[in-house]
Specification:
Helix content is 56%, strand content 9%. The chain is an alpha+beta fold. It folds into two domains: 190 residues, Tetratricopeptide repeat domain (Serine Threonine Protein Phosphatase 5, Tetratricopeptide repeat), CATH 1.25.40; 127 residues, no CATH class. The chain has a six-stranded mixed β-sheet, covered by helices on one side. Helix 5 packs antiparallel against helix 7. The longest helix has 18 residues. The radius of gyration is 21 Å and the shape is globular. The mean pLDDT is 90. Keywords: Repeat. GO terms for molecular function: RNA binding; zinc ion binding. This is DYW domain-containing protein.
């Protein structure tokens, strides 16, 4: 519970105070560090497990492979070696989930060709999660060539999954292929599929405040928009430059900054800044990946406001403190 709320200090205290540990409790600690993007700490836990001769199970191996996505240094070779010796060392046969994690590690560090080659060499028919890991890596690195092949495979396996259509469309948009993007969106509509809109939440005084992009339904929307306008000016002075490549709509260049400024996450953070006490972090939840521009913007917001910004998106936690983020470079 504590790790899922971003409080690894309390999570670790509870773990340390347990009278004894089994593989489930070790796995819980590992997963907490991975959720909070602290891969090096997760691997340090694994070293402790080895010293205490804790025999890993399938879940442990999944978590150890995943940890290599979030290390400060590129340790892909170490990850590959662990994967290769999993069966001989721990009698654990790699399944689709293990391959999906390894593909995610390769993709995260930019080894997209190697990740695709790995998928094609899996000695059994992989689950759709493996292809989704490859497609997500293509999203991060904006690789439409491999991404298109991965999306085609996913759609042949799960033709009713709207998220794949959205990712494929966004890949085309990011590379300026607007016509192809529109074709994908039209195909979605023809199949009767709808995209879940980006949404962000913040809890204030035991009430959930929810925001969509360019949302003006909140009773304090005037204050929120005024705060965002002021924040933008201060962040621009501090060196922030809006990255309009993350606007996945075919609009005029001068309109793109406006689109960026009113993303749901920015609205939620602005609301948090004007309603919470200065010594408290602003904590926001988001139902999809945090975009690269929001990630950069929040770094500057943490500087100009001298506040901590904590955002949990669909991939894990981001903590912005004094212009730095707890995760390795996100994009």
């Amino acid at each position: 519970m504590y790790s899922k709320c971003g409080n690894m200090e309390e999570a670790t205290k509870i773990f340390d105070n347990m009278s004894e540990h089994d593989v489930v409790s070790w796995n819980s600690l590992l997963s907490g560090y991975i959720l909070n993007r602290q891969g090096d700490k997760a691997l340090a836990v694994w070293k402790k497990m080895q010293k205490r001769r804790v025999h890993p199970d399938k879940v442990t191996c999944l978590l150890i492979i995943s940890a290599y996505k979030y290390t400060n240094l590129n340790l892909v070779e170490d990850c590959r070696n662990f994967f290769l010796f999993m069966k001989s060392s721990y009698c654990i046969e790699p399944n689709s989930d293990h391959y999906a994690c390894l593909v995610g590690v390769f993709g995260n560090w930019g080894l997209l060709e190697e990740a695709e080659e790995l998928v094609n060499k899996i000695p059994f028919e992989p689950k759709v999660s493996v292809w989704k890991a490859l497609l997500d890596s293509c999203r991060i690195h904006k690789n439409t060539t491999i991404g298109r092949r991965a999306a085609r495979k996913i759609l042949s396996m799960e033709p009713q999954d709207p998220s794949t259509y959205v990712l494929k469309s966004n890949l085309y948009s990011a590379s300026g292929r607007w016509h192809c993007s529109e074709q994908v969106r039209d195909e979605m509509k023809a199949r009767g599929l709808r995209k879940h809109p980006a949404r962000s939440w913040i809890i204030h005084q035991n009430k959930v405040h929810s925001f969509f992009g360019r949302d003006k339904w909140h009773p304090q929307s005037k204050d929120i928009y005024s705060a965002l306008d002021i924040l933008l000016l201060e962040c621009l002075k501090a060196g922030y430059e809006p990255d309009t490549s993350f606007v996945l709509h075919e609009v005029e260049e001068h309109q793109k900054t406006n689109f960026l400024l009113y993303h749901s996450g920015k609205l939620a953070v602005a609301y948090g800044l004007i309603t919470t006490r200065p010594e408290k972090p602003v904590r926001v939840l988001k139902n999809i990946h945090l975009c690269g521009d929001c990630h950069t913007f929040f770094k500057y917001v943490s500087v100009v406001t001298k506040r901590e910004i904590h955002v949990r998106d669909s991939s894990g936690f981001h903590r912005f403190v004094n212009g730095e983020c707890s995760c390795r470079d996100y994009w």
